[in-house]
Write a structure and sequence with these properties.
With about 375 residues, this protein is an alpha+beta fold. The protein folds into 3 domains: about 90 residues, DNA polymerase beta, N-terminal domain-like (DNA polymerase, domain 1), CATH 1.10.150.110; about 50 residues, DNA polymerase, domain 1 (Orthogonal Bundle); about 200 residues, 2-Layer Sandwich (Beta Polymerase, domain 2), CATH 3.30.460. Helix content is about 40%, strand content about 10%. It is built from 15 helices and 9 strands. Strands 2-4-7-6-5 form a 5-stranded mixed β-sheet, with helices on both faces. A two-stranded antiparallel ribbon has the order 1-3. It has a two-stranded antiparallel sheet with strand order 8-9. The longest helix has 18 residues. It is globular, with a radius of gyration of 23 Å. It binds 2'-deoxycytidine-5'-triphosphate and magnesium ion. The site of 2'-deoxycytidine-5'-triphosphate has 12 residues, from helix 11 and helix 14.
């Protein structure tokens, strides 16, 4: 330790939505560890603990330098006692015993593997773990009753756990554009989620679809899905109507906006070797095999792979909110809503923003929403909280 002047203290704001968090940062050796503990807390359905670890990790992601000693943590917000203890151990010993024992625990590994099956949540995974199941194939061997999503999840397990590349995301974009354009002209299709934030890989590909003409987007989802099915491009799909009623409902809320948000969880069949060519569509797929919700019993082979794709349709009046809500990261979203509620008495969703007097605040861009919230605009590439 040298007695010279300290480097200027880094000031870090306490809400993730007040900070710039780049994709690549300097402290993955710490954040990976904290995120293991966050994940394990989720497996134990301890949300408070999980969010605490995620917030700690997120603060370290925003630092412009490597954390080398405990002095570097001075004045940082959100670092709870437990996180500080873990960080200290890693700085001193190179690893944290708690993180390592978690990583190696049978429960963590089994929960990770079982929740890694598309359609399997923490509750089912935990029940199966208690029944002695450990791996996805155990679900088959022990004859568990699986819903259609889980059946597809097991069937395409390897593909769905292989990261989707940017190149593949672009290939899927071309397919989605072609599908949407075939059933409605003038629709706007935007890549959301991690890829919008600049990630090179993702666990899925997220799209938001809208149309400048309010109402033109109605009924779009089933038509798009039909088209995709006819082309043999869907391995699985399930559409849910997003219940826009779940939050507190003010009289100012325009009734025609209710129940219009549709989300489709799907699995695409992506032909290999055509990524990025712009002509990923191919009519040589076996015909008539995609009826219903699990279309095919084929296994991915050398010619194609399964890819998780989420499609969301939004009316244009909600497009800015939907864009902000679907860009992520998940923690950034959570922090935006917390900021809105706790600091501004407002209520933010992917549909709308209401002020403290329940008045609807109109917005045509993400920039306007940040302004309504009294926040400096943070571009998508710096929302990797
Ligand atoms: N989202 C959210 N809350 C949810 C689900 C989604 O806020 N319960 C938002 C934020 C996410 C975006 O939707 O960024 C897409 O969700 P993903 O799970 O696909 O997350 P990412 O795209 O960020 O990550 P990945 O690269 O793993 O797909
Ligand atoms: Mg995603």
């Amino acid at each position: 330790p040298k007695p010279s002047a300290d480097p200027p203290a880094t000031t870090v704001k306490s809400y993730a939505c007040q900070r710039r968090t780049p994709l690549k940062h300097h402290n993955t050796f710490l954040t990976d560890a904290l995120e293991i503990l966050a994940e394990n807390a989720e497996f134990n359905e301890n949300e408070g603990r999980s969010v605490a670890f995620r917030r700690s990790a997120s603060v370290l992601k925003a630092l412009p330098h490597v954390v080398r000693g405990m002095d570097d943590l001075k004045n940082l917000p959100c670092l709870g006692e437990h996180s500080v203890r873990v960080i200290k151990e890693i700085l001193e010993d190179g690893t944290s015993s708690e993180v390592e024992s978690t990583r190696q625990s049978e429960q963590y590994q089994a929960m990770k593997a079982l929740t890694g099956v598309f359609g399997v949540g923490v509750k089912s995974a935990d029940r199966w773990f208690r029944e002695g199941l450990r791996r996805p194939l155990d679900l088959i061997h022990t004859g568990q009753k699986l819903n259609l999503a889980q059946q597809a999840g097991v069937q395409y397990y390897n593909d769905l756990n292989r990261p989707v590349t940017k190149r593949e995301a672009v290939a899927i974009s071309h397919i989605v554009e072609k599908a949407v354009n075939a059933v409605l002209s003038g629709a706007i299709i935007t890549l959301m989620g991690g890829f919008r934030r600049g990630k090179e890989v993702g666990h899925d590909v997220d799209f938001l679809i809208t149309h400048l003409e309010e109402g033109a987007e109605e009924g779009l989802m089933p038509k798009v899905l039909n088209w995709l099915e006819e082309q043999g491009l869907l391995l699985y799909q399930k559409t849910t109507r997003n219940s826009y009623l779940e939050s507190k409902d003010g009289p100012a809320r325009p009734p025609h906006n209710l129940d219009r948000f549709e989300r489709c969880f799907s699995i695409f069949k992506l032909e290999k070797g055509k990524e990025g060519s712009g002509t990923s569509l191919n009519t040589s797929y076996d015909s008539g095999t995609t009826e219903g919700i699990t279309g095919t019993t084929e296994q991915p082979g050398p010619s194609w792979r399964a890819v998780r794709v989420d499609l969301v349709v939004s009316p244009f009046s909600q497009f800015a909110f939907a864009t902000l809500g679907w860009t992520g990261s998940k923690l950034f979203e959570r922090e935006l809503r917390r900021w809105a509620g706790q600091e501004k008495g407002m209520s933010l969703s992917s549909h709308a923003l209401y002020d403290s007097k329940q008045r609807y605040l109109r917005a045509n861009s993400e920039e306007e929403i940040f302004a309504h919230l009294g926040l400096e605009y943070i571009p998508p590439s710096e929302r990797n909280a």
